[in-house]
Amino acid sequence: MIQEITFNTFCDAFPESRQNNFTYEGKKALFEYLESYEEDTGGKIELDIVALCCDYNEYKDLDEYLNEYNTDIEKPILEEFIEENKPEFLKEYDSYKKESVKNGLNLAESFFKWIAFVKKDQEIITEFQDLEEDFKKEVFEELEQKTTLIKIDEEAFIIQAY
To answer: Please, are residues 136 and 62 in contact by the beta-carbon 8 Å criterion?
Structure first.
């Protein structure tokens, strides 16, 4: 016996103890994904909220994922990404640091002076933002290869545990 589930029924099926597993937008994205999966496969999915909460995790952004989901995905990507995309101004920092220390500044003072300089340079800020977007794109591509990735909006997403 199969009962058709609406989005409202889907949301109502989450018991009080599971209400915070997904945001409203996350529930909507997950519901749409499950409906699409049923349509694509021709199969039916049993509504099991506990299983969904165990199998899927929502993240407000990539930073939250990288902080909470301790995997090996981002480490090789990050190391390779930094090596391939190390901006010229970061390379220049090494020589700046050596010169600053030689002139009597400690490492912390040298670093903070450099950061103050960098923050004033819009070109450098733009380069940082571009690199951050490229890194996010690479991590999302890697996630899509390893598991189900459900985008909620530009930042938030759900992944299936793997």
So the answer is: yes
Q: Is residue 44 part of a domain?
A: no
Q: Is residue 134 part of a domain?
A: yes
Residue 132 domain flag: yes
Count of the separate structural domains present in the chain: 1
Task: Please write the tens of the pLDDT for every residue from 96-155.
Answer: 666 666 776 665 556 666 666 666 666 666 766 777 787 788 888 888 998 999 999 989
- Residue 90: give the domain boundaries: 71-146
Asked if residues 78 and 135 have their Cβ atoms less than 8 Å apart, the reply is: yes
Quick one: which of 160, 135, 157, 131 has its CA closest to 145? 160
Token duo for residue 119 = 């923050």
- Global model pTM greater than 0.85: no
